[in-house]
Amino acid sequence: MKTISGQKASAGIALGKINYLRRRKKDISAKSIDDVQKEIQRFEEAVKEAVKQLEELHRIALEKMVSGEAELFEVHSMMLTDLDYRDSVTNIITKEKTNAEYAVSITQDIFSQMFLDMDSDYMKARAADVRDVSGRLLDILQGNSPVLISAEKPVIIAADDLSPGETVQLDRNLILALITSGGSSNSHTAIFARNMGIPAVVALGQELNEGCDGKEAIVAGEEAVVYLEPDRVTAETWAARQDADKIQKTALAGLIGLPSITLDNREIKLFANIGSPADVDSVLANDAQGIGLFRSEFIYMESRGFPTEEQQYAAYKKVVEKMQGRQVIIRTLDIGADKQADYFKLPHEENPAMGLRALRICLTRPEIFITQLRAIYRASAHGNVAIMLPMVASLWELLEAKEIAARVRCELKAEKIPLGIMIETPAAALISDELAKEADFFSIGTNDLTQYTLAVDRQNSALERFTDVHHPALLKLIELTAKNAHEAGIPASICGELGADTELTRAFIQMGIHGLSVPPPAILPIRKHIREMRVD
Ligand code: PEP
Ligand code: MG
Fold it and tell me: Under a CB-based contact definition with an 8 Å cutoff, are residues 432 and 484 in contact?
């Protein structure tokens, strides 16, 4: 047995087999082959496997309601069965007596260039599809396990690191735990794991490597430890702890339907954070009073091109309807920094966390913002919806965004809905008195507020020691925001990860924080904590 320590990303215990996600091997060189027929056969087998994978991904995407994605997988399947593409590969194998990998990579270059040379933007964009399909074939031929493919039964997913985009595309029903050699506990990958209640440990170092693939392991999320090939006693001990956890969870179910109120009658609202329509079941199962943060950018990250108004409307409507009148706060696009989508073609930035991201993109490229706002206003007809703007730093940004939103609303003849902002820059906290006159509510994003206040990059695991989430500067900014909100008569909640820190719940209530929006699995433990405490 080997014990590897990392950094805590999400609590919980998992026992199972490791599925190590290998990165695509980069160098594809020509190798001469003797048996042409055998090589063509190898290529045909790879095509069959790729079609199977795409069918599975199509099914998952339909379930997750990401219709743009679902259609794309269908298109990719069609490309694979396209005779021109296949003829090109088999011709190269035959004529050059070369390996299938090389033939696929040459065909990829020829076909993608062909699309790039076309006039229409639509056809030009197909070049990316050719690369995607060819990449899948190369993965299969080279024996790489592509990040997006699901295992047959639930596994512990291991990788060097996972981008938020890769993480959201994993089939959550098949993940027992997430473990990575790199990463940081404040990254969106860690947040995603917490939202789904999946145990996760990051920054495990090089002891977690490809050699771990297929090995049995125990992931102890709270302790931030992974036991590789555990001995019998260790396995039994952790299995017993896992059972005890389950019993505790069942006991917490007794709190469903009860208010989150202290012994001295101070009530606080408990909302949930979600990243995808698929998370709503967990929100309801954990009895959240609403959704305090719908990270809508995940819809963009799951998609290969800009999601259309209809696609977004369908996703928002589904969430809103399922919440049956409970409030759903949809945060507008917060792409940029670690959350990337290639098709935005964002310029390379030296400091992306302080770069063109979130609301800054929306104000710079209003056509993207307007499409999203239209979808949100249309979905608002189906329930209780609010809009929330991320990364506000100056009053003018809020005013400009409000103006755009008002125009969209008038065009659609939609009802007015609350429009609030996130307080996640020190600037916004410091001018929260002015912002409170223009915003309908505040939601404090402590993840970014910590990053910007303490100047600690939330992606950098080496800064864990310096990331003091109880830093007095941070607490002062939260208190100031709550005070200014209170004076203006608008609610202030917390939707950053600090909202789930029960060491601070009392302080938050004392500051006049109105609600906490936390990962769904944290709702009932916090409710229990609140119901057992006195504030004054
Ligand atoms: C935050 O910054 O606290 C927040 C909730 O937003 P995100 O983690 O998505 O940046
Ligand atoms: Mg943020």
Answer: yes
- Per residue in 150-204, pLDDT tens? 456 899 999 888 777 667 667 778 899 999 998 888 777 788 888 888 999 999 9
Query: pLDDT for 394-433, tens place per residue?
Result: 999 999 999 999 999 999 999 999 999 999 999 999 999 9
- Mark the residues whose beta carbon lies below 5 A from ion ligand 2: 424, 445, 448
Spatial strand order in the sheet of 7-10: 2-5, 225-228, 216-220, 13-20, 155-159, 175-180, 200-202, 7-10
Catalytic residue among 58, 212, 362, 495: 495
pLDDT band at 98 (very low <50, low <70, confident <90, very high): very high
Which one of the ligands is nearest to 493 CA?
Answer: 1
Instruction: State how far the Cα of 121 lies from the Cα of 380, in Å rounded to an integer.
Output: 33
Mapped onto helix, strand or coil, the DSSP state of residue 387 is: strand
Ligand 1 centre distance from Cα of residue 311 (Å): 24
Question: Is 188 in the active site?
Answer: yes
DSSP string across 454-522: HT--TT-GGGGGG--TT-HHHHHHHHHHHHHHHHHT--EEE-SGGGG-TTSHHHHHHHT--EEEE-GGG
Ligand nearest to the backbone CA of 478: 1
**Cβ–ligand 1 contact at 338 (below 6 Å):** no
CB 488 within 8 A of CB 512: no
- Average confidence score pLDDT of the chain: 91
Nearest ligand atom owner, CA of 443: 1
Q: Which two tokens stand for residue 280?
A: 């709503």
How remote is the CA of residue 496 from the centroid of ligand 1, in Å?
5
* Residue nearest ligand 1's atom 6 by CA: 445
pLDDT value at position 150?
46
Active site residue 495: yes
d(CA 423, CA 495): 10
C-alpha pair distances (Å), 256 with each of 194, 250, 260, 265, 270: 20, 11, 10, 18, 12
Active-site residue (options: 58, 188, 212, 514): 188
